[in-house]
Write a structure and sequence with these properties.
The chain has one domain. By secondary structure, it is of the alpha+beta class. The radius of gyration is 20 Å and the shape is elongated. The longest helix has 28 residues, at 94-121. The chain has helices spanning 2-18, 94-121, 128-154, 160-176, and strands at residues 26-27, 51-52, 55-64, 71-80, 86-87. The strands form 2 sheets. A 3-stranded antiparallel beta sheet has the order 1-4-3, with helices on one face. A two-stranded antiparallel ribbon has the order 2-5.
Length: 182
């Protein structure tokens, strides 16, 4: 009985240690923009939209006092998920729509930079885990709200003047936070 229990925990521990997120992702880069081949999910034919970008931000952190002083290390990334992003075959202006979808990814990168900035300014307190979670949740809520506002104001890319205003706005905001680019 004890040997079986030990083997069970050994297998469970191994699975937990080596579990990976098998979903492919593309990290944001100023030199590598999205292309339609990146959109690999099956299109949602019931959707009135022509394409869908699935992107987001994530972070990891580590805190140590081994050196005698508190050291907080973190890594923030902005990712595009090809296997969750799709495009329909029949679309009119493919380049224009691709730029719209790229802007969704750029908005995620903008918020990754905001998170990097916030984490660089954070002074570790007594509740590091809770503090970092609050910072992340606040910025993630801002990212989600901006994504929705972008689609609402551009009418999902149909309002070209609004689309071009958003492109300029996001480019300026990314430039303001260029020190927090990877």
């Amino acid at each position: 009985m004890n040997r079986s229990l030990f083997i069970f925990f050994l297998v469970l521990s191994g699975n937990l240690l080596f579990a990976q997120d098998n979903s492919e992702k593309i990290s944001w880069s100023s030199i590598r923009t999205l292309n339609w081949e990146d959109f690999r999910a099956a299109p949602d034919e019931s959707s009135s939209f022509s394409a869908n970008t699935n992107s987001g931000i994530s972070y990891t952190w580590n805190y140590s006092t081994a050196s005698g002083k508190p050291v907080l290390e973190n890594e923030v990334s902005s990712n595009f998920y090809p296997n969750r992003s799709w495009v329909k075959e029949e679309i009119e202006d493919r380049d224009y729509l691709l730029a719209h979808e790229q802007l969704h990814f750029d908005i995620s990168e903008l918020h990754a930079r905001k998170l990097r900035k916030a984490l660089s300014e954070y002074q570790p307190g007594s509740n590091i885990r809770g503090d970092l979670k609050k910072i992340y949740n606040r910025i993630e809520a801002e990212r989600t709200a901006m994504q929705k506002k972008f689609d609402a104001e551009t009418q999902h890319s149909e309002n070209k003047p609004a689309e071009y205003r958003w492109r300029k706005f996001v480019a300026m905001e990314l430039e303001k936070l260029k020190d927090f680019d990877l």
